[in-house]
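Hi there, hope your week has been kind to you so far. Would you mind checking whether the tokens look sensible for this chain? I owe you a coffee for this, so here goes:
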Amino acid sequence: MSKLPPVEFPLDKSAANRAVSAEGDVSLTKQQKVVKRKEFYESLDKDKDGTLTRSELEKGFDKLHDSKTKDPRADKATIAENKEESRAQIDRALGKNKDAVSVAQLTDRYAKEIGASTSPAHLQSSGKGLVKE
């Protein structure tokens, strides 16, 4: 799976904002980036069954892109381009004949992409932040 498009989200405490911010944050370890990405995937999983459906992915990304569109400083062409790239990434994540993918699979793919571990101990988070390795 390729990386999520570089979209700037409004400054809030959402899992999506933390995940996107983590991409360029050199102070975070690879494991911490994986935890943030896992939290992002989990935030898109509306029925909390551990699986992301095409509908959940599309609605989640649409909501993120739409929130950026409301910012008067936002470049509308870039937002539209990022939205199209998100759709292409959803298609790649699910494959041609799949309607869903597990959060674990997506997290594993991302971890492999950046060369990080996906052991359960590394993927734990707490309410106050990341668990120390």
In short: The first helix runs from residue 15 to 24. The mean pLDDT is 75.
